[in-house]
């Protein structure tokens, strides 16, 4: 299969590209940095730039006659109080997490329509299902990806194109080094420091990127996709159905305890 993966300079994207390349697939990695690998080809691309995205797809089609899979993995985190977040920071986050994802889908869909098949995985987050303290805009950006995913599933189904959102929990990557961190005003400083330390501890004890790659391989083997798939440790994954089942105030109290806000 011909597979395009975004955000392959490090972390999940790099591990996934190498893993699928080793399995014999033709893999193209789109990232702003040029990455050396024996298992996939990097096409330096800023996915927020429409022209660069179009050029990247044209580059793929120079050697390949089809595009079977798009995995929208590129994204960024953002931490800080809602009140302290600037317009520029919010727009930067949504431009990559939402607009970049949409631009990639719209670039490959004409090819997938012509071949009457294709699959797209939009990497989302368990955090898209709930407003996480001090990660409100990150949760919002991924929730937006979820709703676009749900909508586009209907729109492209006549051409045998399947789209899903893959909600990940904490993964052991260097995400903490690459997050946008807003200013933290004095009223929030003490509680933010506590939550931020806990947040990073959860990442340190998260799933390995290779585990995610193995899960995605199994996902690609499924004949029919649901709109949403979840991969996380039980303690995080169970938070999703609990939100659906429990009274809102009770659920919020559980979340406060989990985030040590009490």
UniProtKB/TrEMBL annotation:
One of its GO terms (molecular function) is cyclopentanol dehydrogenase activity. Its EC number is 1.1.1.163. The keyword Transmembrane does not apply. It comes from the Bacteria. It is an enzyme of class 1 (oxidoreductase). PANTHER family: SHORT CHAIN DEHYDROGENASE, SHORT-CHAIN DEHYDROGENASE_REDUCTASE FAMILY PROTEIN. Belongs to the short-chain dehydrogenases/reductases (SDR) family. This is Cyclopentanol dehydrogenase. It comes from Kaistella antarctica.
């Amino acid at each position: 299969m011909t597979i395009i993966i975004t955000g392959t300079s490090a972390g999940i994207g790099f591990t996934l590209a190498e893993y699928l390349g080793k399995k014999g697939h033709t893999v193209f990695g789109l990232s702003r940095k040029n990455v050396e690998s024996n298992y996939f080809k990097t096409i330096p691309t800023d996915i927020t730039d429409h022209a660069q995205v179009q050029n990247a797809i044209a580059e793929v089609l120079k050697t390949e006659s089809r595009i079977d899979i798009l995995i929208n993995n590129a994204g960024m985190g953002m931490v800080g109080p809602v009140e302290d977040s600037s317009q520029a920071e919010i727009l930067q986050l949504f431009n990559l997490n939402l607009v970049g994802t949409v631009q990639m889908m719209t670039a490959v869909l004409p090819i997938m329509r012509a071949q009457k098949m294709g699959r797209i995985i939009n990497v989302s987050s368990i955090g898209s299902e709930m407003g996480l303290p001090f990660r409100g805009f990150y949760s919002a950006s991924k929730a937006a990806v979820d709703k676009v995913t749900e909508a586009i599933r209907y729109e492209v189904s006549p051409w045998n194109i399947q789209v899903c959102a893959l909600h990940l929990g904490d993964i052991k990557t260097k995400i903490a080094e690459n997050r946008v961190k807003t200013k933290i005003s004095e009223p929030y400083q003490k509680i933010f420091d506590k939550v931020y330390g806990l947040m990073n501890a959860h990442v340190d004890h998260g799933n390995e990127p290779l585990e995610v790659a193995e899960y995605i391989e199994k996902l690609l083997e499924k004949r029919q996709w649901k709109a949403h798939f979840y991969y996380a440790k039980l303690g995080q994954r169970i938070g999703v159905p609990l939100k659906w089942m429990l009274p809102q105030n009770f659920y919020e109290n559980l979340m406060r305890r989990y985030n040590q806000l009490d």
